[in-house]
Amino acid sequence: MVDVVRAPRRRRVWIGRVAAMAAATAVLAAAAIATRNMTPRPSTVPRAEVWIETVKRGRMVQDVGGTGTLISEDLTWIPATTSGRVRLIAIRPGTRVRASSVVLVLENEMLEQEVQEASLKLNAAEAALATLGAELDNQELQQKVIAAAIEAAYRKAALQAEINEKLAARQLLSPVLLQQSQLDAEQLLTQRDLGVQQLAYLRELRAAKVSEHTSTIEQARALLALRTHQADALTVRAGVDGVLQIVTVEVGQQVTPGTNLARIVNPAKLKAEIKISEADASAVREAQHAEIDTHNGIISGHVTRVDPTVQNGTVTVDVSLDAHPPPGTRPDLSVDAKIEISRLENVLFVARPPYAQANSLSRVFKIAPDGSSRRVDVQFGKSSVSVLEVAAGLREGDRIIVSDMSEWNGVDRIWIK
Description:
Blueprint: H1 9-37, E1 43-45, E2 52-54, E3 56-72, E4 75-79, E5 84-89, E6 96-97, E7 102-107, H2 109-169, H3 175-232, E8 235-237, E9 242-247, E10 254-255, E11 260-265, E12 270-277, H4 278-281, E13 289-293, E14 298-306, E15 314-321, E16 334-351, E17 361-367, E18 372-383, E19 387-392, E20 399-401, E21 413-416
Parallel strand pairs: 1-21
Antiparallel strand pairs: 2-20, 3-12, 3-16, 4-11, 5-7, 5-10, 6-9, 7-8, 9-11, 12-15, 13-14, 13-16, 14-15, 16-19, 17-18, 17-20, 18-19, 18-21
Helix pairs in contact: 2-3
């Protein structure tokens, strides 16, 4: 038997560790070399999941978009002209009405009583005028009787004085009797003149009193007309032809003068009220062409007003319709709008990717002839609702993916399968 000389245990353990480390290092180095020499395989995307558009050259319509509603240009509110309680709503919204159509009925017991009182006051004033006329007629008649008697007495006295003058001239009558007859005639003449003046005064007094009572009658008549008009207004009529759009009250509700009860619109005269972002609204001007999408057809129009104020980050733009709206179009219908700002000639443009902005640099997937796609930098210029101007990075005929590719963030190449 030959004795084998063995190394110490510590030395054997150390040698084993060194060998294991060397082997691991060799494996890692080989893996690194293999990884460095490998070409990564691009991700594959189904063709049906992407939207591909081609870069074109030509005329690009620059427009801005917004949403809004159709409203009637011919709109009438029906206000309450008197206080009352809603007793009946005769017509419901959506009904076509005539000017004479009864929309709702109010009731006011106090007003009905005031109409009766005003009627009684008018009757009393007219009766008082009739009584006054009779009294004044009687006074004038009496005064005429007195004046006639005085006139007769004066003529008789004047005749007697004339006779006495002739008798006195022949010395057949004493001077005293002559003077007495002359005084009697002068006294009656004075009474006759006073009677004429009193009759004229009575006529002036009659005119003043009749005028006063006539004024009272006119006031009573005006009050009755007002109360009658207010009572008639309890029956609320449309006032214009159109469609009843809104009734703002309910049966049993108490209303006061000035309260808006209902709204009548003319459905044949509509316009669009569009909300445009304040950033886009700076380029909107009157008379610019617009297209209104009712979701049942496209209507052409033009801008008629741009609100000078900003509310909640938007500007209100009114668009008048240039054509009749499609059947079924009605006020308060939600619509979309595009307003044409300008037209750019002979420019490159492409459908607008959801992540791209005007006058900015974006990375898009450009498709190669072999079906592969890689990211490229593209400088976009002016924008529109659906297209963007291509300032640099693409050429006419290039195809890019314009759908949302956020799922592939961090990937520079993909295959379209």
